[in-house]
Amino acid sequence: MNGLPMVQVELKKRGVAIREAFNQVHRYSKESFNSENSLYKYLQLFVISNGTDSRYFANTTKRNKNTFDFTMNWAKSDNSLIKDLKDFTATFFQKNTVLEVLFKYSVFDVSDTLLVMRPYQIAATERILWKIRGAYEGKTGGRQKAAAISGTPRAQARPSPASRRRKLPHPRFHR
Known about the structure:
The protein is α+β, with helices and mostly antiparallel strands and 175 residues long. 39% of the residues lie in helices and 14% in strands.
């Protein structure tokens, strides 16, 4: 993004344990990633893969959050895991997907530790936001329809902010 690295990918050969890729990233972070003048301190996500198992995790220096347990597989909307590198790349690295993970689904906890949501958390968040949008648009859209039915001139009916934005489809997790 604007010349700053946001995601770093560590690949290992098929047959090599996925933990080796995680350990390599961990070694990088101790040696140079988080040094004062390193561009890599801006990294938000790491992606690791051995071709048959692909995972992602947040860049954090907190020891209790920087374990293999915090790596996660990407998933389809039906919550089936996407492990193969080719399938992972085709879905996770879609422009909108990776940007949403970086900017909407990465959060800081109370101790300012960067965390990234798991696929089921992202799907649940999208569903909640969809419900809220639908309820809000139902309320504000109802006022406009009532004004049109009652004969109030359209110019006097206040358009809702939701009506000025494009309508969002039902949340879809990644196909």
